[in-house]
Amino acid sequence: MIQSSLTHRLKDQHRAITPIIIKLNDRQIQQHVIRGKWSIHEHIAHLAKYQPVFIDRVRKILLMDNPEFEKYSAEDDDGFEIYCAFTTYELLKKISTDREVIYNLVTKLSPDKLDRKGSHPQYGKLDILEWTEFFLLHEAHHLFAIFQLTHSII
């Protein structure tokens, strides 16, 4: 069974980005506040790029018995640079559009489908709800990083 806190976060957690960055201009969003670390824009690009990866993983879990996934790394994903080239506004639109897909995919699954598992190299076998929790916690980590960067700029 899906907990209401998970469904609420899945539906709305990504919406925190806009109020966090609302006072910033594009130069500030693109700024590398900490040398060698991502800008706010790159964090947002990563969140946007990872959502299709997550959708693909859930679909594979539904189609295959215990598929094994590699640990995802943006630096090893050629698509990450492509996403970085989008404007922040375009990325936020992509996040919202893909989030709707994720929300509908996960929340409409029957309990037996939610129990299907896929293996992560670090966390082992996770069912779809655990993958979703992992996805949301990962996103929250980046939201916090964006919040910290915003307050380093202002």
Automatic annotation (TrEMBL):
Domain DinB-like stretches: 15-143
Name used for this protein in its record: DinB-like domain-containing protein
InterPro entries the UniProt entry points to: DinB-like, DinB/YfiT-like
Signal peptide annotation: none
Taxonomic placement: Bacteria, Pseudomonadati, Bacteroidota, Sphingobacteriia, Sphingobacteriales
Top-rank taxon: Bacteria
UniProt feature coiled coil, ranges: none
